[in-house]
Amino acid sequence: MTVITGRPAVRVEPGIRRLYLRRQLGLFLLLVPALILLLALFVYPIARLLVTSVYDQGVLTLQHYERIVQVDLYLRVMRTTFTIALQVTAICLLLGYPLAYFLSSVRVRTARLLLILVLIPFWTSILVRTYAWMVLLQRQGVINRWLIELGLIEEPLRMMYNRIGVLVGMVHVLLPFMVLPAFAVMRGIDRDLIRAAQNLGASPFQAFLRVFFPLSLPGVAAGSLLVFILALGFFITPALMGGRTDIMIAQLMEDQIRTQLNFPFAAALGTVLLAVTLVIFAVYNRLLGLDKIFGGSVS
Amino acid sequence: MTVQEMTRPGVRVVAERRTKPPRTIPWGRVLLALFSAGVLLFLVAPVVIVIPMSFSAAKYLSFPPPGFSLQWYQNFFARADWTSAMIQSIRVAFTVMVLATVLGIMASLALVRGNFPGKDLINAVIVSPLIVPTIIIAIAVYGVYARLQLVQTFIGLVVAHTVLALPYVIVNVTATLRGFDIRLEQAAQNLGASPLQTFRYVTLPLIAPGIFAGAVFAFIASFDELIVALFIAGAQGRTLPMRMFEGLRLEIDPTIAAVSSLLITFSVLVLLSAELVRRRGRADT
Known about the structure:
Largest interface: A-B, 94 and 94 residues
Strand content of chain A: under 5%
Number of domains of chain B: 2
CATH topology of the largest domain in chain B: MetI-like fold
CATH class of the largest domain in chain B: Mainly Alpha
CATH class of the largest domain in chain A: Mainly Alpha
Number of strands of chain A: 2
Distance between the termini of chain B: 51 Å
Oligomer: heterodimer
Strand content of chain B: under 5%
CATH architecture of the largest domain in chain A: Orthogonal Bundle
Order of helices and strands of chain B: HHHHHHHHHHHHH
Number of strands of chain B: 0
Structural class of chain A: mainly alpha
CATH superfamily of the largest domain in chain B: MetI-like
Shape of chain B: globular
Number of helices of chain A: 13
Shape of chain A: globular
Radius of gyration of chain B: 26 Å
Helix content of chain B: over 70%
CATH architecture of the largest domain in chain B: Orthogonal Bundle
């Protein structure tokens, strides 16, 4: 607080301070309803979930976690989940990086128009998109019929109810989460740096590899981590397009609650999933803020 | 075009540019553009293909459709299990939108204008429903609801969905709140406006685009939500995504093509209107 004359400072400051505190209190009260909602329906339920996973019928126990590690079926589910998440992230990277690079190199108007094409599926229900892929990929589906008519194959390919179906469906859902942060970072890269590198004798490829690529890494890393953690918790796509033996952790959790009625075990699975998610997310948050993706605007 | 021309070092291209404009086709860029077009096609084609399918005259899935028919739309609107699910979804999503928008505006004001301990932590908690896998939220809330007998209630579903929708409102509203000049509010108050009047006549019109976008996303977040609903809505309060999920799990019911087309049209309209409002908002300021 800047005080010009010495005298009023003694008298005014407590008054201003009180006013300031009252205003802050008023503002804090505005937050209270949202806080209550989050505490009651997010923080408390999840805390209770964590407790349930180690505290069963009055005793502390790690038996549910032991079960995850000891039973082959559950270990396989864990492995499948991580493998699928890694595969989806890798494919999203391969498809998303060039697209983001292209979008960041065309004129702003063109980029905005093309980004709408990325955002339309982004805001379309996952169920609608899964349905579309089922139409395309099933035995009598569009792709198989076209391939047969073209004479490329004789027997319809199995592209659904197996890993291929899950990967295609999940990549389609998660690709925008790779493209949007990568694009946001790439657009901020000063193109003069690449021109400078080329003037100094670098080939276009060298300029890309040694200048542009390192600068784009924060966006790529953020996109990859986001795709990976979202993929870990996927349920709808593997449930509808996956094979019976290719089960992911969220499906196992749903099954444990709805058919096995084993809440503590599902809670233990949930805790593992949550722990992995939060660790990766902490890394993510350091690289790039959340608002880059969920602001939802085209710009 | 020879390989030599393509792989020519950049230095020489730059040096030659002064004398004559380069006539070479930039093959790298052409390839990149083609690849990007392919990826965009991969993203959009499945969404687009559903629409002609929904007008198919065939009794089973076939593409291109053999003839034009509205049978799947008729089927959708004639069957109570579909229409009641749609009405339930609209009711839930609308209530969630109102609730999340009101709570979200209040919380955003506090988070942007306020200065109190723990603000960063509160911020982190508010956005975390976007990151925590929905299946975890679903079973956690289910565990609490089962005790309180809130499973299969309208209010239970609405409140749970509000938690998921709130971050969208807050992210959008805080973004617009940070973007405008706080001196406008101060000027209004100096001229004698009460805090409420200031909010109503100065702040609210300025952040309206953010509120609109947030409200739209809140509606969609609830309207499209399946996993939480699957656990707590019950057969009586079945939402549209639940009905679609059943339809896809048992057999691939072509009625879903009609539902999907309606939903796609809806989300495109919503996206366009959000974009228009945002542009107008920017033109005003």
